[in-house]
Amino acid sequence: MHLTIFGSGYVGLVTGACFAEAGNDVLCVDVDERKVEMLRRGESPIYEPGLEELLNRNLAAGRLNFTTDAAEGVRHGLFQFIAVGTPPDEDGSADLKYVLSVAESIGRHLSEYRVVVTKSTVPVGTADKVRARIDATLAERHAQIEFDVVSNPEFLKEGAAINDFMKPDRIVVGTDNPRTAELLKALYDPFTRNRDRMVVMDVRSSELTKYAANAMLATKISFMNELANLAERMGADIEKVRLGIGSDPRIGYHFIYPGCGYGGSCFPKDVQALARSAQEHAFEAKLLNAVEAVNLRQKSLLFDKLSRYFGGDLAGKTIALWGLAFKPNTDDMRAAPSRTLMEALWAAGAKVRAYDPVAMQEARRIYGERADLVLAKSAKEALSGADALAIVTEWQEFRSPDFDMIKSELGRPAVFDGRNLYDPAFVRRFGLKYYAIGRGD
Ligand code: UGA
């Protein structure tokens, strides 16, 4: 089948590469010429395990192409996927200007029937706006051409996106027209062979499903973080509590890991956007607001613990930081807890020696050269001359470190673990002070 994907960001690129891998003829359209050039050379602008390989294989096979030409895009695919960004507005609601500008391009160049698919995370009612924008543009041209608008949210996790796409738990399709459901079924068939994983519903329910999924997961995390803070005060160990409740299948083990807060480009943005949408419907989303507030507080927790440890005076101290990315297997630092911590440390006059297996370049891009940030070449080098260690991302290589080495490198041998990676009793045996989340300091 012929497909066009507008937007070669995270979602668009993974979607395009995976559809091409299944044998489709995919054309990706992006306004950024430099990015299109890079992609034509087979270089991925984002770090995602397995993506570059898919990109190169399908480029070579001629099934995956890149262009800046929207007209060519509209001509190419029966399916027109909209996968451009929906950055948060000043008030946290999703900004639809890129989505609607693609809708306008489609309206301008449409010459025969097309299925327009919104893949970006968009507020409920967006498909209607897309349809209205295409209609208005067609009216300007005095053209009458049939098209459908379908909502098909994505549920990819960064770092595992290819696998998530190739072996989806579910494919949600929101459409008010049975004909398009059949077309999408045929398109997704190679990914759902063993079981029918397609959940077809009306457009608005599908749009809300995407937010509901992320908001539910964010709620689980904030709930556990709240309990961790309670456990700390009550002399309980949240890790024991986690195992105790996870074994109940109604609760489950997934996404109940307490930590130093959730980050990334999705949870913070989507929880906020849903809460703002609620406001627009004159409804106060009390739980969503609390989920967000708990997370903001949680992202400051490591700093608060460090500050307490140093008697409120961090000026002139050096803190080693392990992990910059918002989670392992990505270089993404958007809304990462590491940023909250570093910025608070700098504001308090401390220096940071940071190490991350893949996000060093990203950190340099965000913060540039500054005297109070050393980007170390290894986990060990980050420790050198530091007063304490803070762990923010649970990369595999931090899971069983040489604690003797940590002790000898640190000025004040204290470890602040934002991801509960170790057994407290084990770490303390090395003569290290150990502060984790919800495990009683
Ligand atoms: C999330 C969802 O998991 C995907 O299903 C969804 O498609 C995606 O957003 C999206 O909307 O595009 P992602 O942001 O890549 O995916 O990352 P997650 O693996 O969900 O982690 C989010 C944050 O929660 C991380 O900072 C992680 O450290 C934190 N987290 C996760 C916890 O603190 N505790 C947990 O138990 C799980």
Automatic annotation (TrEMBL):
Task: Report residues binding substrate.
Answer: 155-158, 210, 255-259, 263, 327
Which pathway does this polypeptide act in? Nucleotide-sugar biosynthesis; UDP-alpha-D-glucuronate biosynthesis; UDP-alpha-D-glucuronate from UDP-alpha-D-glucose: step 1/1
What are the recorded GO MF terms, alphabetically? NAD binding; UDP-glucose 6-dehydrogenase activity
| Active site positions | 266
Q: Which InterPro entries match?
A: 6-PGluconate_DH-like_C_sf (IPR008927), NAD(P)-bd_dom_sf (IPR036291), UDP-Glc/GDP-Man (IPR017476), UDP-Glc/GDP-Man_DH_C (IPR014027), UDP-Glc/GDP-Man_DH_C_sf (IPR036220), UDP-Glc/GDP-Man_DH_dimer (IPR014026), UDP-Glc/GDP-Man_DH_N (IPR001732), UDPglc_DH_bac (IPR028357)
One Pfam family assigned to this protein is UDPG_MGDP_dh
The answer to whether keyword Electron transport applies is no
EC numbers for this chain: 1.1.1.22
Q: Where does this protein hold NAD(+)?
A: 30, 35, 86, 121, 158, 269, 334
- Could you provide one GO biological process annotation from this protein's UniProt record? UDP-glucuronate biosynthetic process
Its biological purpose: Catalyzes the conversion of UDP-glucose into UDP-glucuronate, one of the precursors of teichuronic acid.
Protein family (similarity comment): Belongs to the UDP-glucose/GDP-mannose dehydrogenase family.
Q: What protein name is recorded for this chain?
A: UDP-glucose 6-dehydrogenase
Record organism:
Steroidobacter denitrificans
